[in-house]
Design goal:
Length: 207
């Protein structure tokens, strides 16, 4: 597999980089991304490909489950968030969950503490999603239950984001907006959260 990565890197340097040389020369002077994109580490999720973005467009946080620990927890996610908002002055923050998320699925695995204790400690930042699903009528089907939890988890992480003082200031003065997405990688569809109803609709569809 590493051979494929080496070949791809050489191909990038020789074939792709020259077509974007002017862009990279501009980026060498500094970055000014418009969006902080928070998504899962899952290999099936490729933020720049999904959004049609160029280098320099997205500031990205990736971790298992697209979790954002709340502000009372010291975390790399919190530091990166504050840097994006306060130093880079991003205008939008997207929390993008995705279908078949293993981290959200692990919330329903009773053996996760024995199998992967570090994962069990990490997914506590998504436990609230389970509570939301139960409160809103838990589906009988395990697949539908996880699908509902994936959507609920996006809502939970947006709430964590909104608790950060830097985000609160941006929301208050209108310089910042939050967005919740769920990417269906099997179909290419993206669902977007309507914050008024807490329901997800196809991206681009009027709420």
């Amino acid at each position: 597999m590493i051979d494929r990565l080496v070949e791809g890197t050489i191909r990038f340097r020789e074939k792709i980089f020259p077509t974007k040389k002017a862009l990279y020369e501009k980026l060498a002077k500094g970055q000014s991304p418009n969006t902080l994109f928070i998504t899962c580490s899952d290999s099936r999720v490729v933020p720049h490909l999904l959004t049609g973005s160029e280098p320099g467009d997205l500031f990205v946080i990736r971790n298992a489950g697209n979790f954002v620990p709340p502000p009372d927890v010291d975390s790399g996610e919190g530091a990166t968030l504050d840097y994006a908002v306060c130093a880079l002055k991003v205008r939008d923050i997207v929390v993008c969950g995705h279908a078949q998320c293993g981290a959200v699925g692990a919330l329903y695995d009773p053996a996760i503490e024995q199998k992967l204790p570090s994962v069990a400690r990490w997914i506590k930042f998504g436990r609230k999603a389970q509570e939301i699903v139960r409160a809103e009528g838990e589906p009988d089907s395990p697949q539908e239950r996880i699908r509902a939890a994936i959507q609920a988890n996006v809502r939970v992480q947006l709430a964590h984001l909104a608790a950060f003082p830097s985000v609160q200031d941006g929301l208050k003065n209108g310089s910042l907006a939050l967005h919740g997405w769920v990417y269906q990688f099997e179909s290419g569809d993206v669902l977007s959260l309507d914050p008024k109803t807490n329901r997800f609709h196809p991206l681009g569809e009027s709420f």
